[in-house]
Amino acid sequence: MVCHRCPGRFPEEAEDRTEHVSGRVDPLFHALTQSQRERIEQGAWYHSIELPGGRTIAGLIPVNALRGRFEAFGIPADLRGKRVLDIGAATGWCTFELERRGADVVAVDCVEYEDFRAAHQLLESRAEYLVLDMEEMTPERLGRFDLVLFFGVLYHLRHPLLGLERVLALTLDTAFVESYVCDADRSEAERAANGAYMEFYETDELGGQIDNWAGPTTNCLLALCRASGFVRVGLHYLQDRRAGVICRRRWDREAMGAAAAPWISAAVNNRSGQPFFDRAKDEYLCVYFKSARETLRREDVRVELGGFGVPVLKVTDLGRGQWQANLKFPYGVGAGAHDVRLWVEGSTASEPFSVTVGAAREEAAALDESVPDLYLISNGTAPDAVFRGHRNEQLVCWFRLPTRNLKSNQVRARIGAEEAEVAFLTPHGADWQASVRLPASLAPGEHEVRLRTVNSEWSNELRLTRA
Q1: CA–CA gap between residue 422 and residue 401 (Å, rounded)
Q2: Do both 143 and 188 map to the same domain?
Q3: d(CA 395, CA 436)
Q4: Burial class of 314 by CB neighbour count within 10 A (0 to 12, 13 to 18, 19+)
Q5: Which residue, of 337, 360, 383, is where some domain finishes?
Q6: What is the pLDDT of residues 56-77, one digit of tens each?
Q7: The domain containing residue 330 runs over which residues?
Q8: Would the pTM of this model clear 0.85, i.e. be above it?
Q9: 344 occurs within a structural domain
Q10: Who's near 157: CB < 8 A, 6+ residues apart?
């Protein structure tokens, strides 16, 4: 079964074919798709291909329409030094045009196109050509790419959001996404007011093809791109039932300023309260931070993980300058340690807070009898060591210890006469930060705080106040 792609025509070739029957068969799209299918079965190429000497193999999609799509996206004319992935390459015009512009290109489709092979030979192309399904495309298998083209593929997928997450994991900078949208016949105002939903096609309702599964609204397509993990998503064109969206992985640094940076007190897995994440699980990141800003919207907060932006889903004011940001942990993050940084609009970036993904957790090192040097304690939600009984309060302890491989279960805290659990432990240069849950029975008054490792004596004493 051949996955025929969405029609690739732009205004200079396209007739006005805008009738759409919501939730049912789109009759004109159906007729157009069937016509293309018949021509392909009779031997027509899908993309037109330009050959040396000014010759062209005429295909269903004219060269000026294919070039018009590149222009609509603003794809750079000079791609030297860039690695680019073309998902859904079909006959290969995009692949060969990217290569002509200087890129190192990998082309992928779910079936092998003999026409691509023939054009590849005629053009003496060096592009790599692979036949893979979306589920087989991983950074471990393909590496990562500066740019990714994802044209006419999304609506062929049974799980569109998972497909976009795969695209995110393969993208270092920018992905260009084009898809069929089910509300292209509506006015701009109607589309803006329309919801973010998808039509589901159980059999061959879209175009008479059984591999067309979903038709998102324009708003839904944009929302899917954001939900997959891209932080800057913009609609760049809407033409002939197709929407073109540019998706970027990194925040715009021009929104930074000179204001004081936020301070991250913790970045943890919302299930465990620990800074560890499992690649095989659907997990969420909670970032606790302090900011001098009196008000913050979700749109004001920028979080980065390993240098890539991560969309913020919710920001909560915890009081006294303490905030909580909730985020979906991105798909495809590699095993090992990764720095979380945060900034708000107009500020500089915070110091990093390290989280660990997958099996990269090392076994705890054997400890000698060195005693922690406890030099600072504070309330995680306030700048002092006064605790007022609020639900989100945690004791933050800063200490020095001559080891770089220490785990939270190797550290003990004592508050007054009671031992307390170390919730998580984070290295900061040569120092350590331990976050400790206060005993619920802690009485008002002053209490000594001490730390030790499983092999050491108790540390020096600092004091907190339970108001």
Answers
A1: 16
A2: yes
A3: 5
A4: exposed
A5: 360
A6: 888 888 999 999 999 999 999 9
A7: 255-360
A8: no
A9: yes
A10: 134, 163, 213, 214
